[in-house]
Amino acid sequence: MEDKEDKAGEPRELSMARVLRIAQEAEGFMELGLFHRALERTERLLSSRAGRQAGLSLKAECYRRADRFAEAIPLLEEALREWPDDESLWVNMGWCRKRTGRLDLAIQAMEELLARQPESPIGHYNLACYLALAGEKERCLGELRLAFELDPSFKELAREESDFDSLREDPEFQELL
Fold it and tell me: What CATH homologous superfamily does 84-177 map to?
């Protein structure tokens, strides 16, 4: 079995099939709200070269879902050093930074994502959310317009998104919707 140790006492490398199985187990525990069990599973992934990216991402996601945003940030930073083109890592970074009171860094995370992937609808949408909260109406509306052009389904999300509450009565915002 892959979970056994080798002769030097080091854990054996995981196969990709085993990585996927452990990742699915961790996701299942998160869905059930059993974050401690999910975190246990991510540790096995983190000890493996093949599972490191999944382990960092899942551990950060577990902390995010458990509202432990500050604990997720260093994991996301580490993952982004290795996998800077992973859109979901940038989105989660913005999410966590916003919720730790660092709206400026949430905006920066979305700007960094969009520098790498200018056609990311979720990047434009989340940047618009953060800009709305920062009171940057014109930039917000420009980013929102781009998000809607790239993926019109974001219009439905924007209708209910509390981040846009300050713009609800704004004629330009209403026209976009």
Answer: Tetratricopeptide repeat domain (1.25.40.10)
Task: Catalogue the long-range contacts made by 19-22 (C-beta closer than 8 Å, 24 or more residues apart).
Answer: 19/45, 19/48, 19/50, 19/51, 19/54, 22/51, 22/54
What three-state secondary structure class fits 28?
A: helix
Residue ranges covered by each domain of the chain: 1-82, 84-177
| Tokens at 168, concatenated | 């609800």
Does residue 100 contact residue 71 with C-beta atoms inside 8 Å? no
Distance CA 102, CA 141 (A): 21
- Alpha-carbon gap, residue 165 to 129, rounded angstroms: 10
Residue-wise pLDDT tens digits, 26-35? 999 999 999 9
Q: Evaluate if pTM is beyond 0.70.
A: yes
Mean pLDDT of the chain: 91
